[in-house]
Amino acid sequence: MAISPVASSSLIRKGASDHGRSRRRGGARLTPYLYILPALLVYAAFMLYPLGRAVHLSLFKWDGLSLATFVGFGNYVDIASDERLRAAFGHAFVFVFFYAILPVCIGLVLASILTRARVHGLSIFRTIVFLPQVIAMVVVAVAWRQIYAPDGQLNTALRAIGLDGLTRAWLGDYTFSLPAVGIIGTWVSTGLVTVLLMAGMAKIPGERFESARLDGAGAIREFFSITVPAVRAEITVALTLTIVASLKTFDLIYVTTGGGPGSSTTVPSYEVYRRAFQLGEAGSAAAVGVTLTLMIFVISLIVNSIGDKSSS
Amino acid sequence: MFKKRTATGIAVAALAAFALTGCTPGASTTTSEALDPNRTVETDVSKMGDLTLTVWDQEVRGGQNEQMEQLNAAFEKEYPNITIDRVSQSFDDLGKTLRLALSGDDAPNVVQVNNARSSLGSFVAAEQLHPLDAWVDAYGWEDRFSESVLNNSRYSADGSAFGAGSVYALPQVGEVVGVFYSKAKLAELGIDLPTEWSAFETALKTAKDAGQTPMLLGNIEKWPAGHVFGPVQGAYVPADQIQTLGYGNPGGTWDTAENLKAATVLDDWMKAGYFNDGVNGTDYDAAWQDLTTGSGVFLMAGSWLAADLEDAMGDDVGFFTPSANEGAAANTTGGTGLPFAITTGSKNPDLAAAYIDFITNDDAMKILADTGNLPVNNTAELAPADGVLNDVYSAFGNVTTDGTLLPYLDYATPTMGDTLGEALQGLLDGRLSPEEFAAALEADYGDFTSGK
Questions:
Q1: Domain range holding B238?
Q2: What number is the ipTM of this complex?
Q3: For a 10 Å CB count at each end of chain B, is N or C smaller?
Q4: pLDDT score of A309 more than 90
Q5: B382 within some domain
Q6: Chain B: nearest CA to A258, how far in angstroms?
Q7: How far apart are CA A177 and CA A145, in angstroms?
Q8: Whether domain A74-311 has CATH 3.20.20.70
């Protein structure tokens, strides 16, 4: 039995006038949330709940096995006074340079050369640059651990060109282990940043470069006056991704140095792991984790607000 | 405005929901109940019906893995109603995943646990493991194992006293830390096998003067240097002092002239260039492999490397434990391999106990010996006729009967593994003086024993 269009529409109109305006507006207000509900449920179950649980845990002194005791913000006070942890956060900021700042500088140069040069086999080159992103971090770390070994490829190469004085056990050196691990981060991040920036540069209209050239601008002037301002949005994205990656880096440290020598390369996420699984201080580990999360959140906000301002 | 209000609403709702569902961590995660001490222990596995036994072990190296596979196969053959689900992982990985596994609902039945306070001690305190008393009587384990071996896995019920109380776990193998060397290399350098420390240190100097690397060490993992420091300490510090420090019981101190002397010896070795370059950046495995290729003269390490070294070097490799003085027996680091314990989450603790009995009985000791391991019982009878294993068996027998088997120093406190490892890296780098090294260890030990 079919209802004619006219009949059905009059039914709706009738119903609408029956229930009044406010009800209809309430329904409209809730509808969008209904759409995001499935995703929100998954997000809440796997992100918000664990996060809340971590915050909750961080207020206790707990060995991970027996009954916990409530200590309020005691764990956070301990974090502030723990020299080893302050050093760990310091190392994380050194990694921001190696993971984010350096790759963006290298990536800008590399991407502008690649987009201008129009060389044959560009896609192959792009693939090679991007490759470190595809390889699992543990594999990367194992490979670099061999490169940095006392008789590894790096020292062998240095000896081959007569720089014996520079050879050292890179990962066992109190001064050089931190930059050595940082360089691995640079190697990994550069590919992602370069590909991101190349995508941004491809959108720049060719006429701009043409007119700049007519005005007598050289390659370097073009780079700073046209290329860099045009890819600000991409730089923001690249910085956000790489800074987050650098602050939460764990697998690289775990496989290469285990935070050593001494505690000279330890980072906050390694401390979370060490406290939770080695020392049995689950509450303190959660507090470090929460602090790190907040810090990443704030830094990402700052980067993005700077990016938004300068692009508008 | 509207957006902000909704966001706040969601946040408040989430927190409220959380506060309602949240409870004190650790309150009701597991349902562990103590077994009735007067119940009858079932020792006949064939009457237990079809069961699966989950075992977590760390027997991953060549000979260790082989014995475990043989014993598990033999157990399943003898009791076709039992299936063994074996989960094996490296020492490092097991130590870190075990805590989580034990506090979960699906805990393994039998687990290999480090004797240390941070592992066995804290699991005992959290009532995650069964005391073995009932089975010790049923199977006569006190007759099978020597008292000093059982002491290494005795804890008081609250986990506070180490070395006394109920037995919580049983080991398969013994371990002794000493010195591996290449016989051909010593002959080439004209060095007679040293038996006491002064001769050993002279041998190191001779090797250095001949342009060799006297001592191989790979210490990127931080703990390997502990197996160099342990025997050195054993030579210079009275055994009872080291035991107090190693078990983490109150009454000892690192702040003694003897401990300082031991640290100074290591410092002197480093300054004299006895170690390979960049010890803190070298892999543990790379260092012992260097001994097999003749890149160094001596390697101070545990007996667990003997099987692998013999595979690579054949008759050329030897092992000894130098004593402090001529004619005296050696005091050196050692103990047992990681012992096997029964979890309170285990639904069939009697089966778990029968399994542990099976892998530590006389037949098992024979299989352990056949696969190149150092059986913890019947060691003298099972010693092979020659080769490095003969050296290892006699060293273990010698140290346990006449000398003293000293506890691993990281047993002492939950943080001692890290403290010792980092302090040794500092000492070997020249960053820490022997005084600062001893002070770092004293701080850790002192804080723990004074209950801070």
A1: 176-335+392-449
A2: 0.78
A3: N
A4: no
A5: no
A6: 7
A7: 11
A8: no
